[in-house]
Amino acid sequence: MSGGGGRHRRRIRIALPVGAAGLAAAVAVALLTSSADAATGSPKPRPPARATVADSPSLAELEQRIAGATEGDDTPGGTRVKSSPSASTGTVSPMIIGGTTTTITTAPWMAQLWYSDTKGTADESDDTSFFCGGAVVAPTKILTAAHCVKGYDWKAHGAIVTGTSQLPSEGDLHGGTASGVWRQWSHPSYNARTIDNDLAVLTLPNPVKATPIRMTTSGDTASYAAGTSAKVYGWGRTSSTNQDISETLKTATLPVQSDTTCASYYGAEFVKGHMVCAGKPATGSDTGTTSACNGDSGGPLVVNNRIVGVVSWGVTNCVSKGAYSVFTKVSTYVGAAYPRVDDTNLSGDHKADLWVRNASTKTGYEKDSLGTSFGARQSWGNWSGVNVVLQADLNRDGYQDFVYRVASTGDVFWWRYVPATESWADPKQIFDNWKTRTRILTPGDVTGDYLPDLLSVDSAGVLWIYPGNGNGTFATRVKVGSGWNQYNSLRGHGDFTGDGRTDLIARSASNGSVYLYKGTGKSGAGAFSGRIKVRTWSGTTYNAFDAVGDVTGDGKADFLARTPGGTLYLYKGTGKATSEIFATRISVGTDFKQYDIFG
Length: 599
Hints:
Blueprint: E1 11-13, E2 44-45, H1 59-71, E3 100-101, E4 110-117, E5 128-138, E6 141-144, H2 154-157, E7 158-162, E8 177-179, E9 183-186, E10 200-203, E11 214-215, E12 229-234, E13 250-255, H3 259-266, E14 275-278, E15 300-303, E16 306-315, E17 325-329, H4 330-341, E18 354-358, E19 363-367, E20 378-382, E21 386-392, E22 401-406, E23 412-415, E24 417-418, E25 423-424, E26 428-431, E27 439-444, E28 453-457, E29 463-466, E30 478-481, E31 487-491, E32 504-508, E33 513-517, E34 532-536, E35 544-549, E36 558-562, E37 568-571, E38 586-589, E39 595-598
């Protein structure tokens, strides 16, 4: 393969399995079972019976999957990569080509992704087995490449190992833990031929102990400036002359290259804005080359402790003269990935569900999203005595929980599901005497630390942020500003504008003007940018609203509005921070007048 011109160059997805000895997995995670015990305290709800949604493979199955992955020779994305002789005659250095050994302490968020599918036959020719890297971006979320995920059933055939710098060997996870996969998402515009939009998120059944790393923001330009020092991490190939990947975690420092430089080598294969390349031009051999290579796929490119890129593709054998490593440009895709990182819901799929309470019977109901409609309601028992119910995930365990306020005392409680005991914990009081709070919200991560926050408006109209600690407790409240009692509705759950930050939607009590408050990812007075008017909805148009997240599953936060007559409309999010923020409304039911609380 020639080094110049950038044309007719065969691209490879940078991933490859490794041959190794037998492997073992850690104890499988707990299951979400058919029903849970009623919570104590007030109210005394009972979740509806349901099928298991977060099943995890057994220890034996995880062992088999990892062992099978080490024996395969496939590259994710459907391309087989065969080794070929290199011009190198020097000594091969056993690391990311040109990199150094590192520890899991320095990169605690690194994850190993093992995949093995025998197709249920004894014929090995149809087996699919491979290895990828990834990064823990939330306790139950792994950010990786779409070519490692798209077209594969990770729930049925995958295993994730975290918490170790070593690959498994001879039944030893070297201090790591293993998990199955609950859900998977790959970017809907991923193109397997061009390896464009190469980003994916895997959801685990239970949180891992690994410390997460954050994605960069959509407005980040400094991290992509030419010459910026970035670090790549992985267990990929150690040389261009063989297919072996590293038994220990490696890292390498690569200078970010400009789009012009990348395009001058790769031509149209490099998609500006969607991809970023890094590294010095390869020398044509292992000697003098520092590069990601096969097996590093899905791993992170890190600048200032934020993921700015995901290992995507490169030239065959990784060292062709003049070549660079190519990564998915995370700043472009954080808006699409963020809803998948914060997509807890009641039914366990990628679509946000609705919780409501009947005004007369005080019975709470779950209505699962079907995309552009909701399924039959499921009873959650008696929810009398409360006047606020909010859907949340304060401990980031991947299971939706609830925040509610008792009407008589104003005390606010957090009620959560505990996977380890397959039951709902007793409600925990998190605030007392909040009777006069005019608004309480659980919109997700407002401050940009990937930990869910809580917001409230007091009787004086001051909006406060209670920064979440990720465990149902909060840091000292921070004042955003005053004047928020001018709104008779204040809602938010997730990102309405596609920039990866949590936003709010507010309606004026005086004239029905509806405003978007774009989140900035900061705390205090700068938490939201200046309001943008997006609609006018008077009280005769709508008298109740809800924001539960991404109802449709398309990666954009949606909004719900009810007419006085009881018709509920779904406003699909467009990701635009203008009057076009919502698509044409869709009726999702005409019987919603009966409900007085929308979670």
